[in-house]
Amino acid sequence: MGKLILAASLIAALSATLAWGEEVSYTRQIKPLFDARCAGCHGKDTPEYPAFKQEKEKWLAKGQGMRMDSYSHLVYFTAWPDTGALMRRLDDGESAKDGKPGNMYQYLGATEEERQKNLGLFKAWVGNWVVKKWPEITKEEMNGIRVKY
Asked: What pLDDT band is residue 1 in, cutting at 50, 70 and 90?
């Protein structure tokens, strides 16, 4: 119940911010958040997705994932071609069929409150938070993804 109240409060706060005209953008909110929470494992020294995929075990053994340190990299994992990958990994379980958080949710913050706040920023940036993969997503759902620069 507490998680639900916290999530509702965060959504209301984000909605109020957006209502005043300040949209969440990559440059203002997402890039600094990414640099603070994600760049250590997904930064400039990590491989592009195809190279990561070829030697996945090697990179995972080093604690590294695929490169995501630019707007175009994040769009790749949000909208297309790897539609919904970012959302599936950052989701708190609310959008998942099994209710389990994504494997990267834990890294969004040191506390549940911080994770929910940062997840709220990502959700506001994406717009239509869809955890579906490319073949499953509808045109309407895809059109709802905003990812403002």
From this structure: low
